[in-house]
Amino acid sequence: MQMQMQFIFIIGPAILPAPVRFTLYAVVLVFVTRSLLSQLLIAFSAFLLRSLSLSFSLHLIFLGDLAVRRQFCIESVGLWLLSALYSDSDLDLLKLTGMSEKALRDLNTILGTERKNEDSSKTCLTKPSVDSADENIEEPQKKKTSSSLVSPAVNGNQTVTVNSGAEVVNTEVEYIESENLNDLEDIDTCLKTLLAGLDSKDWVLVCDTLNNVRRLSIFHKEAMLDMLGDVISSIAKSLKNPRSAVCKTAIMTSADVFSAYNDLIIDSLDPLLVQLLLKASQDKRFVCEAAEKALISMTTWISPISLLPKLQPYLKNKNPRIRAKASMCFSRSVPLLGAEGIKTYGIDKLIQVAASQLSDQLPESREAARALLLELQNVYEKFHDLMESAVNEHTVKEHTINEHTINDHTVNEHATNDHTANDHSVNEHPEMSSWESFCQSKLSPLSAQAVLRVTSVAREGLVS
């Protein structure tokens, strides 16, 4: 069958007139089922080839161009039927009985050419991958970015090894913990090349420079004060780097900058904050964990009174993961205000923020809101108890004075004054009522109900 498929082409003397060829094909189609006539036809074709010394005109139907298909369409149909009805022995007989050496040579040449074309087409399909592989081997020598492998921890520090091309260059980017960083040898040179190193296209150099920023923050933070704003902008740029090694080193640098400069970076915090919230929301575990540590460092070292206004807009972000991370930071930062700080900031403002997070999409946001509400309830009840004890002490003192007073008129007058003082004290702090009344006065009915449900369930759990 394979031999027959190779004969799906136009076979015919090129200079025979078309009527003669069509007549020949018609005879073949009528008498092709008779073996004797078939062999006579083969002999006749061989005689024509020998006598006229003509070559075969060979054209593959499915590989020929459009003009060839149009020119030989009728001949193609006829010979396709002819080749389908011939057996392999008939085709061999065709070779043995009639074909001239020139015709066989032409046939072999064309079939060989077609095989070469098929092989070359297959080679063209596979060769680019080989070429691209060779290019991928050469490319790391130029960019030093061919492959990055995280090796096992070395002395507690993770390292990234870079192999470039034929020459293997071991470039290690270490994730060094803050307590393991060493001081710089040449501070002046480091400061001069700091910004250029942070903006370099060589990612290994960027990582080294970020580690130098960490060293300066820990050992020489005053030396970097003048360029702190530019340094923070470059750190934020590195946080956007798609290379994980650069991104994680920038995250660790952010944590050290928070611990060193505290509120001094509050004006430049926004670009760092949004990137850290994004990285903490990623699926890459080692990047996410580093970002979480940096956010904890931020809430620890930056004062809550400055940080809370920066965090509050992200509680309404469209990205639910960013909302969750911002809510967790907000919940961690509020207790650091202390009872007096919470009262000064406004319990009513904070309870409204916490109530809005109770219905958030992600459980992290809801859990952070519950923790914040419990903290606010404790602070509120603490001040409520203090005010009640203060009023009681004032009442006891007044009654003690009244016992030493003999004049009834003075006693009655003092009692009247005592009652007036108590009323004045209560009216001076009208918000110091029960927690339930406070929630109902500051929140919508549905929000107040949700807040009271959370705090009452938590209180029942503590009591039980």
From TrEMBL:
GO (cellular component) term, any one: cytoplasmic microtubule
SUPFAM superfamilies: ARM repeat
UniProt-listed GO biological process terms: microtubule cytoskeleton organization; regulation of microtubule polymerization or depolymerization; regulation of supramolecular fiber organization
Region (Disordered): 119-151
Alphabetically ordered keywords of this record: Membrane, Repeat, Transmembrane, Transmembrane helix
Keyword Repressor part of the UniProt annotation: no
The name this protein goes by in its record: TOG domain-containing protein
